[in-house]
Write a structure and sequence with these properties.
single chain; mainly alpha; about 0% strand
Length: about 140
């Protein structure tokens, strides 16, 4: 029997590629259903799917470039990691907006709740940017 060796990055990248294929199908199906009317529900759902696609791409890039001895790969790994951390709260934001629209939450209540919800995401965004300048989370 022959042994199959898999490199450390291959399995997560394969899983991300499968997830990307599923999300592209969902994205195209939703786009076909809403060709004439573009509602808020459509906007939030499309951006929810697109932000998940971006996260999968950045996650796959970090797996591909991790541990590479090539100096330029280290730069790509750091950039992909920073973009991953910046993008991480985005699907949650779009999901909350989608649920608010589906449940018909009044806009006044939405504004009040979003102040509480968006604060941690903005905090993470600023820390991700600061990380690239001051090396707070990991060093270059």
């Amino acid at each position: 029997m022959e042994t199959i060796t898999v490199m450390q990055w291959q399995m997560p990248v394969f899983i991300n590629c499968f997830s990307l294929a599923v999300l592209f199908i969902v994205l195209m199906n939703n786009r076909q259903e809403h060709l004439e009317t573009k509602s808020q529900r459509y906007f939030f759902f499309q951006h929810l799917v697109l932000s998940n696609i971006a996260l999968l791409v950045f996650d796959g890039l970090t797996w591909i470039f991790v541990g590479s001895p090539v100096p330029s790969h280290r730069l790509f790994h750091v950039l992909a990691s920073i973009m991953f951390y910046i993008m991480a709260p985005m699907p949650s934001f779009f999901f909350i907006g989608f649920v608010d629209v589906v449940l018909n939450i009044p806009s006044e209540k939405r504004r009040q709740a979003h102040v509480v919800v968006y604060h941690p995401g903005c905090h993470q965004f600023y820390h991700s940017i600061a990380q690239s300048i001051h090396e707070l989370v990991f060093s270059h």
